[in-house]
Amino acid sequence: MTFRKATEKDVTAIVEMLADDALGQTRENFKIPLPQEYLDAFTNINRDSNQELIVVEDDALEIIGTMQLSFIQYLTYRGGVRGQIEAVRIRKDKRGQGLGKTMFEWAINRAKSRKAHVLQLTTDKRRPKAIAFYEKLGFSAPHEGMKMHFT
């Protein structure tokens, strides 16, 4: 298994995974050719050194997972860095094989290597299995997260 930074040619496989669940189907627009908005977003992510869009490849070099890590510099915690993990997905035929745990172990080590003092994530409350998985990995929910959607 290989973890690497995504390239533009990986975007289609990434978006396909993002759209491949009940919640993703309602917010993604996966089709071929891929809508330009995804390629534009990839360009912005790729040029920002605090963003890491990661793909996971199996031994056959097929993309079987993805995640995005963001590193947020701020003044609190003595100028600390906060790691944010988002859009973790595993290809449907590879789920339940321990890949998620391996991906999170990699992400935790990556956040530590970037000198982050915390790694955080959000998950939809309608994903109770995901919440239990994150808690098993050592994540806790000491804060109440809030969002304001504009679209």
Topology diagram in text:
Elements: E1 2-5, H1 11-18, H2 22-27, H3 36-47, E2 51-57, E3 63-73, H4 76-79, E4 81-90, H5 99-113, E5 118-121, H6 128-137
Parallel strand pairs: 4-5
Antiparallel strand pairs: 1-2, 2-3, 3-4
Structure at a glance:
The protein is α+β, with helices and mostly antiparallel strands.
Provide key terms for this protein.
36% helix; globular; alpha+beta; 5-stranded mixed beta sheet; 151 residues; 24% strand
Word description of this protein:
This protein has 151 residues and is an alpha+beta fold. The protein has a single domain, classed as Aminopeptidase (3-Layer(aba) Sandwich). The chain has helices at 11-18, 22-27, 36-47, 76-79, 99-113, 128-137; strands at residues 2-5, 51-57, 63-73, 81-90, 118-121. A 5-stranded mixed β-sheet has the order 1-2-3-4-5, sandwiched between helices. It is globular.
Question: In the CATH scheme, what's the topology name?
Answer: Aminopeptidase
Q: What would you call the shape? A: globular
- Quick one: how many beta strands? 5
The rounded distance between the terminal residues' Cα atoms is: 37 Å
The DSSP helix count reads 6
Integer count of domains: 1
Rg for CA atoms: 16 Å
Percent strand equals 15-25%
Strands side by side in the biggest sheet: 1-2-3-4-5
Q: Please tell me the CATH architecture by its name.
A: 3-Layer(aba) Sandwich
SSE order, one letter for each helix or strand? EHHHEEHEHEH
By CATH, the superfamily comes out as Gcn5-related N-acetyltransferase (GNAT)
Uncertain stretches of 5 or more adjacent residues: none
